Amino acid sequence: MSISKVYEPKEIEKKWYAYWLKHKFFSAKPNPSKKPYTIVIPPPNVTGVLHMGHMLNNTIQDVLVRRKRMQGYEALWVPGTDHASIATEAKVVAMLKEKGIDKKDISREEFLKYAWEWKEKYGGIILEQLKTLGASCDWDRTRFTMEPNLSEAVIEVFCKLYDKGLIYRGARMINWDPQGKTALSDEEVIYKEGQSKLHYIKYYQAPPAPEGGAPNALSHSEKDGFGSPSPSGRAGEGLFFTIATTRPETIMGDVAICVNPNDERYKHLIGKKFLVPLINRAIPVITDEAVDMEFGTGSLKVTPAHDLVDYNIGLKYNLEVIDILTDDGKISEAGQIYVGEDRFAARKKIVKELEEKGYLIESKDIVNKVGTSERTGAVIEPRISTQWFVKMKELVKPALENVLKDNIKLHPKEKFINTYKHWMENVQDWCISRQLWWGQQIPAWYDEKGNFLVAPNKEEAEKLYHSKFKIQNPTLTRDEDCLDTWFSSWLWPISVFDGFKDPENEDFKYFYPTNDLVTAPEILFFWVARMIMAGYEFKGELPFRNVYLTGIVRDKQGRKMSKSLGNSPDPFELIEKYSADGVRVGMLLSSPAGNDLLFDEKYCEQGRNFANKIWNAFRLVKSLTPNPSPSERGTPAPQTLPSGVGGLWFENRFNQALAEIEDNFEKYRLSDALNGVYKLVWDDFCAWYLEMVKPEFGQPVSRNIYDATIRYFEQILKVVHPFMPFLTEEIWHELRERSEKDCVIVAEYPKVQPFDAEFLKQSEKVLELISQIRNYRSSKGKSPKEALNLQAKVLQNEGLDQYLVKFEGIIHKLANAKIENTSTPSGMSAFIVGGLEFYVPIDANLDTAKEKADIQKEIDYLQGFLKSVDAKLSNEKFVANAKPEVIANERKKKADAEAKIEAFKKSLEAIG
Predict the structure, then answer these.
(1) Which residues contact 471 (CB under 8 A, 6 or more apart)?
(2) Which residue in 60, 328, 560, 805 has its CB near the most CB atoms, within 10 A?
(3) What pLDDT, in 10s, does the model give residues 825-868?
């Protein structure tokens, strides 16, 4: 068979993915003879295309599910997409605009018809892209959050929570997205740090009432927030208050000035009235401890319609609410001036007018955080609005308790548990209504008087209305709003198995609760916490057992990858260049759970090189020719297949490495697991084992060694498969004849077997010895073909001398050296390994002056190194705080350095 010198992945990847699909290897169904293993995909938005975050997240899921499938579990990975109300509606509105259609000119039914058409055309792109990555999802089970069964579950849950008193409708301060024209929950607001202006504005004292006397006297100090009159002759001229604000465009909504009751500067002003600049509305001075005495001038303009703190102060004092913004962020009629202007354009014009009329004292640059919409990026507006809310205080209790008790484990727990706890303990009611058409429409029904009731459909609503109000055939109108997208996705682990529609169905009873959830930390509260709440509220148990929180993919400068920054590579260009397997390895090599990945394309190159290394190992293994077995020669076959000390070493080393790999898997350290696989393949199998058993060119190997090597390579392919599925499947089938369904994807994953730790410890010393011999040969310019006869003297009884005989053949083969044990060595000390000092004969042609200079240089270096180690060990603070194993390691470094110095001094004596 002709094997290409370089691994060519493109056609191989297409071939094997189609093969896996054809043979239903990704499919899963209830199987009483197997344990289930279930992952539900974090449903990507139907608007989405594959980006680097998806690549990382889905590679991790695929690694987990492929390993469990091989371990004999009925492994199921459920795919699906999220309808993404805000993002999808924006896409459809934009599409309609291109067609010359305005959303407000068509009915809801017409709009939804266009939306479904758009979803059918574009909504499945990202799932198709995941196939290129190798995702082994059960595609026959693909779900969508707005398909009928899942939408019915959402409506059922809404009605249940309402009947239970956990959903209510009310007017509250909410987050408003002026671009999406919808309410947002607190978790959908992203706070971004940026440069702003803090404007210091004069609020002049109102003139006395007609029957009143002269204004109260004020001290003249702008620093204290008030000052002397300006001779501008303007209406209401007098002493003034100085208010600092970053939002001068909202002054038209001011209804009070508020100071802290503990602020001595302002106590004599409480109850006085001042004028709102530009519109001259008189407003009172009131007090509240919510005012920060240190910010600005320590006084606050109260605008209840446009700030949460102000809103709460307004409720306390029963203040008027003046909403000066429209739903798209323009100045409303209530603002009186700059009506119809965009809020930010109005801000600039108001600042300019304030300055021209003498109201503006100064503007300072500050750094502050501004809330933006997680979906549209627009700056959000706090706004009082009648919306639907979920009461969260009771729902969070089991979700917090079971995470704190580790019934549900966060990975890595230490990084996220405190944040999770803080959020759950301080959770606010969840605003779940959205002013959109794309989504599950709220099942609330109103009569002409505004009375409402909640029912799953109009027929049920009419029955309920008649029962409540005793009126036949009422005219009922359904609430125009739809539900927050997260209100459907929090049900995802239950609803994908139709656990609401048919809770006794086999799939739900077998696959739920699920096992692992892999997701990004930024939706820990959006989605993960809420799914946990839903699991306990609706099913009385956890929805999953482990949450693996990935890091954020960042560029080399530490910036989050994004389209706007242009710093994110195209995933498909990476796959084209480095192969899917190469990119998967590249993503995982440097992405420990919860820690951000500083992505560099060189990691994908490293992944491709790893694939080529495995391919070249395959080529070498396939080039081996076995001698006829004893049975083929007419003699009884041996009971075992020993492959010499090299095989014994690799078998032990494989099990040791597998134990470490499996331990990392159990601890959700996938990057560490992959690094263990990488070392096992690159170093242990390729660099050492294959070199141990490789025959002279053109020569055969024994049947025992051949069979063992094939067996070891198959074990390696199984361990590598979850990380590199395409390459391993190709080699698996090329390695020997296979039946149609004998594929590595369903091959039995290796089980950890006992290994001889002492044998491995001594073996490592032998390998170090071989490396030292090679280094010595290289440093002296000696050919590998030139045999070396070394003498070994025991310095410390570390046991290596007893193993030199066992490895004699390997040392001779790999280092072309023979070793003799002696207590009286002659020649020159070359190096120390494992408590043995090795001597080489003095060459008659040795340049003694150069050799002495080289040795002295080594001694000088070691003495400097020894000085640094001694400094550590003599540092009482270091010795008191360091772990015992760290101190022991430093002491061993000291002993080794001292032994080497002594050996080099003996070499100087030997040279003469």
Answers:
(1) 465
(2) 60
(3) 887 878 889 889 898 887 756 667 777 777 788 888 888 888 88
Q: How far apart are the first and last CA of the chain?
A: 60
DSSP state of 521: G
- Cis ω on the peptide bond leading into residue 412 (within 30° of 0)? yes
Nearest Cα residue to 757 out of 718, 727, 799: 799
Tokens representing 688 are 């050492």
Classified as helix, coil or strand, 473 is coil
Q: Are the C-beta atoms of residues 443 and 480 closer than 8 Å to each other?
A: no
* Residues 886 and 820: beta-carbon distance below 8 Å: no
Structure-block tokens of residue 712: 């070891």
Q: Where are the alpha helices (DSSP H) in 134-241?
A: 148-163
Cβ distance 214 to 205 under 8 Å? no
SS3 of residue 189 by DSSP: strand
The whole-number average pLDDT for the span 137-161 is: 97
Rounded distance between C-alpha atoms, residue 318 and residue 321, angstroms: 9
Q: What residues are paired with 516 via a beta bridge?
A: 39, 546
Contact between 517 and 547 under an 8 Å Cβ cutoff? The reply is: yes
Residue owning tokens 């801000």:
347
Sign of CA dihedral 639, 644, 648, 654: negative
Amino acid at 207: P
Q: In whole angstroms, what is the distance from residue 510 CA to residue 37 CA? A: 10
Q: Tell me which residue of 157, 175, 301 sits closest to 242, measured CA to CA.
A: 301
- Hey, what are 876's tokens? 């009482």
Residue 135's closest CA among 882, 745, 553, 770? Answer: 745
Q: Are 226 and 241 in contact (CB under 8 A)?
A: yes
Distance, in Å, from the CA atom of 310 to the CA atom of 323, rounded to the nearest integer, reads 13
The one-letter amino acid at 173: M
| Angstrom distance (rounded) from CA 480 to CA 436 | 8
> What whole-number distance in Å separates Cα of residue 436 and Cα of residue 116?
15
The whole-angstrom separation of Cα 707 and Cα 645 is 15
What order do you get walking across the sheet with 360-373 strand by strand? 226-227, 240-245, 189-204, 360-373
* Rounded-to-10 torsion of CA 722, 727, 732, 738: 110
Q: Kindly give, in sequence order, each residue whose CB lies less than 8 Å from that of residue 754, ignoring residues fewer than 6 positions away.
A: 655
What is the per-residue DSSP string for 574-614? HHHHH-HHHHHHHHHHT--TTSPEE--HHHHHHHHHHHHHH
Q: Which superfamily, per CATH, for 182-381?
A: Valyl/Leucyl/Isoleucyl-tRNA synthetase, editing domain (3.90.740.10)
Tens of pLDDT, residues 188-219: 888 888 899 999 999 999 987 655 443 333 33
Bridge partners of residue 386, in order along the sequence:
171
Cα gap 609→578, rounded to integer Å: 9
Domain ranges of the chain: 182-381, 600-755, 787-801+811-911
Question: One-letter amino acid identity for 467?
Answer: S
Grouping H, G, I as helix, E, B as strand and the rest as coil, residue 828 is: strand
CATH architecture of the region 600-755 = Orthogonal Bundle (1.10)
Question: Does the structure show a pLDDT above 80 at 540?
Answer: yes
- The helix (H) or strand (E) run that includes residue 889 is helix 884-911
pLDDT the model gives residue 778: 85
> Closest by alpha carbon to 485, among 863, 97, 150, 888?
150
Pairing of β 74-78 and β 36-40: parallel
Q: Where are the alpha helices (DSSP H) in 276-391?
A: 308-317, 343-356
Contact 718, 629 (CB under 8 A): no
Indicate the burial class of 147 (C-beta count within 10 angstroms; 0-12, 13-18, 19 or more).
middle
pLDDT digits (tens, 9 = 90+) for 118-133: 999 888 889 999 999 9
| CA distances (Å), origin 289, targets 93, 305, 314 | 45, 20, 13
Which residue in the block uniquely carries the two structure tokens 């000052």? Answer: 227
d(Cα 891, Cα 897) in Å, to the nearest integer? 10
CA distance 255 to 184: 26
* CA atoms of 39 and 852, how far apart (whole Å): 65
